[in-house]
Specification:
Strand order of the largest sheet: 5-4-3-2-1-15-12-9-6
Number of helices: 13
Largest sheet: 9 strands, parallel
Number of strands: 17
Helix content: 25-40%
């Protein structure tokens, strides 16, 4: 059944598709909004424009984000969360509605320049245990048919961002997709190729280093290594090239060795864990940009670097899950308030990053532990504060790890206080906290002040809203169909 639909869909796309220039390779960014302190989307769009960033990837179709991108000239990849794949895979009507509400409503003259729709986010990740594996192709087929019906198939391409764990090998030239994914990857790659879309992959050398104590640290960067990987006549001096060519080899085994590849996520965190710091983040990201912009390519694709690279990420996201590690909240090249963490030349015309303008902060005041507070009595309050607010910089290896016991308490109290928009009651902690007008920041440990130009509703709430709208529409559609 799926094979028949795939064949029919490819024929439909060939009739509907017109060639569209993909443009030059570019450095883009991921814009995530899982934060306690979101800036106004218009402020973030201005930040993108000031830094001449031409492409952005967003993880879901948030209305205020897409509205802010209208008329900006920035090319957009808009994501569909994995949780929506089940509905979109079973209902063409739901796919039509999703496209109408989240794409068609924002494009056109003076609208958002949406070029890609990312169907799921790393849906083949091994930790999902196949939960989304059989939903991807039906969902993408329904969405493609929706694009065709909307006369958008020649301009907007569907892609599926994959984690690098979708393929495996001890040497790059022996790369192959995981056995259980061979059939679905063959179908997916055939579909992408027919539609003129790239294979999108997320590559994280930091995670290779973080998860494996035996991983050579210098091999994660681009400065040369004392642990090169020799693969026949090819020598790999950095993890990115090795990983990329493993994918090239895997695609070649399916007969698509020349398929364009885009890097959907890549970056280095600046805090929250050992190895996650400002220096390493700067060295990695600047090394990556320099490596790609030389157009040197890789041993298996000399002179042909990835068509696009989306840095992960634009801003820190202080509300992300820390299950993988505290570093998850510190991937941004900018802090949550749009301030550059370190000098970085994106190769886009500015030699350094430019900060966000006109950010509206809360008053300059902080909540700290009272000098008379007893360490034994504050422990429970600190745990409660950190269960709600972000305290990941206190982790071992974090920028605030060495500020002492009283400093740790103060940091936790202040994080909670700022999250509560400086409500004086949130600095009580049974009399153990106090408000100060003197910045308690120490060295590299920054005690934040919240922002008042609050951004969008949480992405989770918007996903739930979209989900129920689609479900309600599907129920009405079914009732109407049965009554005919």
């Amino acid at each position: 059944m799926l094979e028949a639909r795939l064949g029919a869909a490819i024929l439909m796309w060939m009739l509907a598709w017109r060639w569209v220039p993909m443009g030059e390779s570019a450095i883009g960014v991921n814009w995530g909004t899982v934060s306690f302190h979101n800036l106004k989307p218009s402020t973030v769009v201005d930040l993108l424009k000031d830094n001449k960033i031409p492409k952005v990837k967003v993880f879901e179709a948030e209305a205020d984000v897409l509205k802010a991108l209208m008329g900006s000239g920035i090319q957009v990849m808009v994501g569909i969360p994995n949780e929506m794949l089940a509905l979109l895979s079973t209902s063409p009507a739901a796919a039509d509605l999703w496209l109408r509400q989240n794409v068609s409503a924002y494009i056109g003259k003076g609208g958002a320049d949406i070029r890609y729709i990312a169907v799921g986010n790393e849906p083949f990740l091994t930790s999902y245990n196949g939960q989304y594996q059989n939903l991807v192709m039906p969902a993408i087929l329904n969405l493609q048919q929706s694009l065709v019906k909307a006369n958008l198939a020649g301009y907007i391409k569907l892609v599926v961002p994959c984690n690098a764990d979708a393929y495996e090998s001890s040497l790059p030239s022996e790369g192959a997709f995981r056995p259980e994914l061979t059939q679905i990857m063959t179908q997916l790659v055939q579909l992408l190729n027919s539609n003129g879309a790239p294979f999108v992959v997320n590559i994280y050398p930091f995670l290779s280093l973080y998860d494996n104590g035996d991983f050579p640290q210098d091999y994660a960067f681009f400065e040369g290594t004392t642990h090169p990987v020799t693969d026949g006549n090819n020598v790999y001096t950095n993890a990115f090239d090795g990983n990329y060519d493993t994918l090239v080899a895997a695609l070649s085994k399916l007969g698509y060795g020349q398929m364009p590849i885009a890097i959907g996520e890549i970056g280095w965190p600046s805090d929250g864990a050992i190895g996650a710091n400002i220096t390493a983040a700067k060295v990695f990201n600047q090394g990556l940009i320099g490596h790609v912009l030389t157009n040197k390519g890789t041993p298996l694709r000399p002179g042909a670097p990835p068509m696009d690279i989306y840095l992960f990420s634009l801003l820190d996201e202080g509300a992300k899950s820390i299950l993988p590690g505290g570093f998850e909240r510190h991937w941004g090249i900018f802090s949550f308030d749009g301030q550059a963490k370190y000098p970085l030349n994106l190769g886009l015309g500015n030699k350094e990053l430019k900060n966000a303008k006109n950010v509206q902060y809360l008053p300059s005041r902080w909540c700290v532990a009272s000098p008379s507070s007893d360490a034994q009595n504050v422990a429970n309050h600190m745990r409660i504060a950190c269960s709600v607010a972000d305290c990941t910089t206190l982790n071992y290896g974090g920028s605030c790890n060495g500020i002492g016991e009283k400093g740790n308490v103060s940091y936790a109290f202040n994080s909670y206080y700022q999250l509560q928009m400086q409500d004086s009651r949130s600095c009580n902690f049974d009399g153990l906290g106090m408000i100060t007008f003197r910045d308690p920041s120490v060295g590299d440990c920054r005690f934040l002040v919240g922002v008042t130009d609050k951004g969008s509703d949480s992405s989770a709430s918007q996903i739930i809203y979209q989900w129920w709208v689609l479900v309600a529409f599907l129920i009405i559609h079914m009732i109407f169909s049965l009554s005919m």
